[in-house]
Amino acid sequence: MASSFLLSSTASFPSNHHHHSSPSLPTHSSNSISIRLIPKQTRRLQKFLLFNNNSNSSPTIPFLVSSRRGFDLVRTSIRDADAETEQDSSVVVGEDSAAFELGQQKLSSWLYFSVILGTVLFVLNVAWIDNSTGFGKAFVDAVSGVSDSHEVVMLILIFIFAFVHSGLASLRDSGEKLIGERAFRVLFAGISLPLAVSTVVYFINHRYDGVQLWQLQSTPGIHELVWISNFISFFFLYPSTFNLLEVAAVDKPKLHLWETGIIRITRHPQMVGQVMWCLAHTIWIGNSVAIAASIGLIAHHLFGVWNGDRRLALRYGEDFKLVKGRTSVVPFAAIIDGRQKLPKDFYKEFIRLPYLAITALTLGAYFTHPLMQAASFRLHW
């Protein structure tokens, strides 16, 4: 995301080896130059100017950052520019999450996406879900043969999915170099999706087979608490899931460094959303299978916190350090301790088409729960 920087210089820059003045930068009549830079280029320019200035005094160069909120003065001297960059949360080095410009969409891309989605669902049904042709039932039966305990089988299914999903994610850089971004995304989805379906179907079919530990479904207010918790949890979806064209490899998949929207609240929103979902379902179901599923899913996402930060640090280096320094894993922690400064129009980062779509899909999923349960039961996994 590019920003416009207006540099106004009031100091001369002597060269390192000569007493005469260094060649002056091109200027307008106002003694200012207008440069369009991304934040990483800006820091490089600051370091270059500092390296080439041997004067004892610190030259004053105000930076005005152009944004939707107007121009903000973010630093006044080159010498302390890097230190101030780390503290100034108004200078966004990451990407704007959940951004969706309808005018920039291509009809051909979404038609291509529809064809790919239909093809994937057809292949998934034939090769995995349909008991007469697919391998899904054989896979679940093989895992179920390990133990008579539904809790153990549930944990094994989650572990297999987590191992494959996180393992492939860790191999993303080398895999993309070897076979390309799109091919690796197809491989990643082609292996992860069937395993995810098996895990979800098994949970739906056996969610009431465990040892009942409590029964709170008739308690006043519990249904409302569980419903609201589940509804909110879907708004913590990882922002990359909004990039459907990348998910389907229509657009070239990228490892994004997000910084706005839900990331201001927590750097790992998918983990937070999964914890909320697990706690809500465990409270509602109240048995050992629900607890086993929650333990497995939460453990997987806690590992994802570490692994995700590690991968972003390798890919983005200093930019990720800046984002990490002003965000938090625990929701609202960075806001409370002052490391994250919310803009006045923060709410606008959520009034976007992807979040409207999430609202509709979440409501739809709630009302179609009986259909999901009936479809899972017919598989007999």
From TrEMBL:
Residue ranges crossing the lipid bilayer per the database entry: 110-129, 152-171, 183-205, 225-245, 275-303, 350-368
Feature: compositional bias, Low complexity: 1-15, 22-31
Protein's cellular compartments: Membrane
Keywords, alphabetical: Membrane, Transmembrane, Transmembrane helix
Lineage top rank: taxon: Eukaryota
Region feature Disordered, mapped onto this chain: 1-31
Chief location: membrane
Domain spans labelled NnrU: 153-372
One family name in Pfam for this protein: NnrU
Topology class, membrane: Multi-pass membrane protein
Name of the protein in question: NnrU domain-containing protein
